[in-house]
Design a protein that fits this description.
Chain B: Residues 96-162 form the Thiamin pyrophosphokinase thiamin-binding domain. The complex is a heterodimer of chains A (234) and B (180). With 234 residues, chain A is α+β, with helices and mostly antiparallel strands. Chain A has helices at 3-14, 22-31, 41-47, 62-70, 86-96, 116-128; strands at 19-21, 52-55, 74-77, 105-109, 133-137, 141-146, 152-155, 161-168, 174-180, 189-191, 198-202, 207-212, 216-222. Chain A is built from six helices and 13 strands. Chain B has 180 residues and is an alpha+beta fold. Chain B has helices spanning 6-14, 30-40, 42-46, 62-74; strands at 52-55, 80-83, 87-92, 98-101, 107-114, 120-126, 135-137, 144-148, 153-158, 162-168. Classes of the chains: A alpha+beta (234), B alpha+beta (180).
Chain lengths: 234, 180
Amino acid sequence: MNLFFFITHILCRTAKLRLCADGGANRIYDELPLFFPHEDPFVIRNRYKPDVIKGDMDSIRRDVLDFYVYWGTKVIDESHDQDTTDLDKCISYIRHSTLNQESSRILATGALGGRFDHEAGNLNVLYRYPDTRIVLLSDDCLIQLLPKTHRHEIHIHSSLQGPHCGLIPIGTPSANTTTSGLKWDLSNTEMRFGGLISTSNLVKEEIITVESDSDLLWTISIKKTGLPVQDHKP
Amino acid sequence: MDSIRRDVLDFYINLGTKVIDESHDQDTTDLDKCILYIRHSTLNQETSGLQILATGALGGRFDHEAGNLNVLYRYPDTRIVLLSDDCLIQLLPKTHRHEIHIQSSLEGPHCGLIPIGTPSAKTTTSGLQWDLSNTEMRFGGLISTSNLVKEEKITVESDSDLLWTISIKKTGLSIQDHTP
């Protein structure tokens, strides 16, 4: 199951705000109609249009920009700000918007793979906004930050996630991490690059707990479930 | 041997490829097993200038990717380069001052220095668009990404092990068939 399908059928229904960077707009425009081959591409593009396109506008195609502007998407040109990544600009926008609440969660796709410095910069966005719940999604997995300030309880949706998982001390070593619910649990275990890090682990229970003295990245695989494409006409 | 197809295995055995079944060892990744083999092989002892190029180690599941990056940190004395379609990654151990020669027909200009594993209190570079000068780098703060190579030679010195990454150019080289 492709990630884009997951986005359109599950996320777009419940999202309060749909936002993309300018390069992402090209992909949504080109690729979403491919999931609905029996429907008019125009209808699909309209149904799944982003609320906001934000970025330095150096990647978006003219025809894509014109389409979305015409149909009401707000476009924010940030080309004057070269110091932050596209993901950064999008997260900033959301954090400052009135829609953002404590219970809000941001799901970001397209942030992984590709150039490694881009990927590292995007992982750093999670570390720089530890009080904002951001989940990075790819075709293969999701990643979120588990700040050291809390004991975490992660509920596993086993029809969509797992069993492969990991805990990665990307920025700083961990002297003490304890978990429950994994195949290979940690018990006040030290983790660091150059030594042990928890990869190719497996979720065993429906609830995973993690407590650590260091900010960790939690990652879990996404199942390719082969959900059928159903057309929900209003 | 849990991923290889039967027809693929038979083909290569037939042509003389050596097959080593490590299915009893579930604690190390595929990349790990390959690096270990090379480190213990006689080739490694003969050539001190040996460099290992590994493809297929990036992208996909993030825990796999992290495990493969960790292989670079666990063998800092072995020169390993991870290659993908978009970039290459190698470890710059803190024990040395590094000089990186840029092959501009193949690499760049996009590059970065990433303090994976431990923050760096002091990193100094030359040859980059945005050089560092005893600059602190850490996750949660500044890390050097979307940088650009400006010179043909880059130097890096740091108190922390860093990952150096540079983009690979899509050069559109034509494939020529050299039939003997």
